[in-house]
Amino acid sequence: MTRIAEWSSVTKRYRGVTAVEQVSLGLEAGQVTALVGHNGAGKTTLIKLLLGLIRPSEGSVRISGIDPAGNRGAEARRAIGFLPESVAFHGAMTGHELMAFYARLKGEPDGRNAELLERVGIAHAANRRVATYSKGMRQRLGIAQTLIGDPRLMLFDEPTSGLDPASRTEVYRMIDTLRGSGATVLISTHALAEVEDRVDRAAIMHGGRLLAAGTLDELRRGVVADVRIHLSVRPCATARLLAQLPAEARCAGRSDAALTLDVAPGAKMAVLRAIAQAGELVEDVEMTAPGLQELYDRLVGAAGDPQ
Amino acid sequence: MNALVVAAQEIRVGMRNRWVLATTVLMAALALSLALLGSAPTGTVKADPLAVVVVSLASLTIFLVPLIALLLSFDAIVGEQERGTLMLLLSYPVARWQVVVGKALGQIAILAVATVVGYGAAAAALWLKAGIGAQAWSAYAAMVATSIMLGASFVSMGCLASTLVHERATAAGLAVGVWLFFVLIYDTALLGILVADQGRVIGKPVLDSLLLLNPADVYRLFNMTASESVSVYSGMAGPGDPAALPAPVFLAVLGAWIVVPLALAILAFRRRPL
How close A121 gets to chain B, by Cα (Å)? Predict the structure, then answer.
């Protein structure tokens, strides 16, 4: 796999405030990565470093081997499409004029702009002033400009913040399309549940430090998060069943006819075998692996509050 | 190349929000009124009406053009940042110096159009009258060209103000301060110092160099003394010979007043955190 972009031991300090500390992270070609964290976790700082808008205090940032804040930075940025958090445009210009401007800056012909506006669904408003656009439409225009020149790397900073549910779905649909076309995408977000199914990898930031990075499976293994098992039990058999299960199965909730267990991944099979042995006491079994939200909560809980 | 793309966009925005139209109309209206009414004092005296107009237009330019230039330029960078469009712009393959130079070029172009069209209208009105010497025409053309240079130097300073501060309101205040200092305060202060000094310390060479430290004075000296027919009316003629410097020196100094603040603006912008 080729690394398109890379932060190596990057630290960024602003007048004594450390925004990002010793972060090493790579973006693999063709993968969608979620950059996850609270506000102020350092997500936007990482993106600004990648765009060469700021220089790292320590460490280095590279896009295809080029330092984006160096002399060849413009060359590196040519291959990037960027959607800033709460994107803004000059309100007096029309969508069409703005697309033409951005295409010219990238040295791309502006013949494809109409098609891009069509793709994000605002072709009908192309000749209207952007000041008349709704927030959702501006966000679509923002996405359209990231697509100019088919960039190899796309950066979306909080792409759904402040959007209504319909627009959110639409934004994610477009990101899914990009994923299908093999683009390399970085999405920074704190809406974990929304991105969970659409990313290949996640990087979890907290207080300027990178807590964990990898595929969801790798993260689960690293965090050793418990598997949750929901059992439907014959009425009044809960206590009898519990007695038959090994000690690794910790009871997380019980009622007359239901039992919820938390089990460490290593003990999962032993517990399942014990459940099978219990025979007719158990009527149904359902298992859930921890989602990104639980992983995040667990990691951040372990890391403690940032300074 | 990308500097020109930024400049073209700046002009397009200027046309869209009526800046180009407003400044052109303002310049034309003032120039025409000076050209048509201002030549009244010459009466039946055998005086060159165009030379009179050059003197009065140049005096007007010193107040008006720097003000327009600063109004155009003070939010070049800080305005983009406050609107939230700067980060997106800089995420494109465009260097910071290209943004500053492009913005300044676009604003200078807007100013140049307004000046050429506005003062050109006045010239056309005068052309319909007879008795205008060729020398006065060249003085008029030089006046228009240096008016644009004067405007450009204040666009440069406006851009510098725009890169130095972090709020649009502060940049506006700074721009007003720059205008007050160079257009109103500087000469008065200089006069006060000269009176107090009584010629003990400040000799003619010192005074000459002090005048070169203000682009508005450079402009005034160039236009009032450049042509003989003009200097007669400007009160700059006579034994005093206030500025013995040749015209190219004035042009070079005005040029420096354009380049140096812009270079400083680029430096400041490159060091500006986002």
Answer: 21
